[in-house]
Amino acid sequence: MTSVHPTAADPFAVTTRGITDPHPARVKLRAAGPLVRVAAPAGGPAWIITDDTLAREALRHPDIVKDPAYAPAGWDPRRAGLEPTAAAQPSLTTYDGPAHTRLRRAHAPLFTARRMAGYAERIAGFARDLLTGLAETEGTVDLAADFTIRFSLTVVCDVLGVPLDRIDQAIAACRRMYSSDPEEVGAAMATFADLAAAALAEGGSGLAAELRDRVPAEITEAQLHYLLFTLIYAGQLTTDPALGFLLSRALGPDREERGAATEDLVRDTLRVHAPAPFTLWRFTSRETELAGVTLPARSPVLIDIQGINTDPRRAIGPDLTFGAGPHYCTGVHLARLELRTVVEVLRSDFPAARLAVPYSGLRQTDFGGIQGSRLTALPVRLR
């Protein structure tokens, strides 16, 4: 049975809280039931799934789609944070069905664990060089400001074939995407198109050039640029904040965590601090029943990934950090490799590294909507 909106908690609020403080809405959402009706930021009702089994059903449900063309008629796409419709711009994150399968077949072989492993040495080199440069200050450095965004963008740009002298442009473009000014966002998108063109320039040897040869024939050059934008921006938007939480735990006061196997530490950090706390918006393409509730066509649906991942009642098994079903994250192997590599480089090259403030004093900010949280700062002494 669906629930009324939990009046004491807003899952979409902008908040700042301690690193160990749970999101104020998570427990109350779970207590409200497996399918909870809430007020959507763009107006009208939305439904949040808080149960693991129901979430996996919804992630595979043929009538719960990602195409923003099915969003409520009154929604402002910008306020809701929606991409262009699938008809306007093909995308892995808006296509469904056979069209999504074709586009995914173009991407997936490029991002397998085996292909990504071939970049391990270069990724370690980027982490080592950036951290060594920061360590030369011989004082406190803020890894959340000076490392995580630059490292994540350096990696994804290198993999795609964007020239590394364009990293500052990529950083500026990603930061502009947070602006409430449409002109700023437009300028950021123009920069991303320029970065994509640079990756596709004659002689390019990155995965962007391979992707161009693999996408369906009807994909235009401008549409290909957008596909590359989604890879660059998603690669920063998720890996950047995840690095902050991971490094804080690797350097924190808990000796067990500091000595934990890297893979275990990465997995648990992603579970507890899911980079995407919710899925992207999904919509019912027609009247659909979920958990005994009939949802009208064009109903917005979210999966509470972070709430489900951290539910103490949840059975042990795969978490939902990277999704499930047809839209399971294509970049999962690259993201995990980046995170593992940074911890390994930190442990091997900077054994004396430590937090410059108490772990309990670190703060995180939730940006509101369906965006994730990130540390406000990560002060560290590397030497």
UniProtKB/TrEMBL annotation:
It comes from the Bacteria. Gene3D superfamilies: Cytochrome P450. SUPFAM superfamilies: Cytochrome P450. GO terms for molecular function: heme binding; iron ion binding; monooxygenase activity; oxidoreductase activity, acting on paired donors, with incorporation or reduction of molecular oxygen. Signal peptide: none annotated. PANTHER family: CYTOCHROME P450 YJIB-RELATED, P450, PUTATIVE (EUROFUNG)-RELATED. Belongs to the cytochrome P450 family. This is Cytochrome P450.
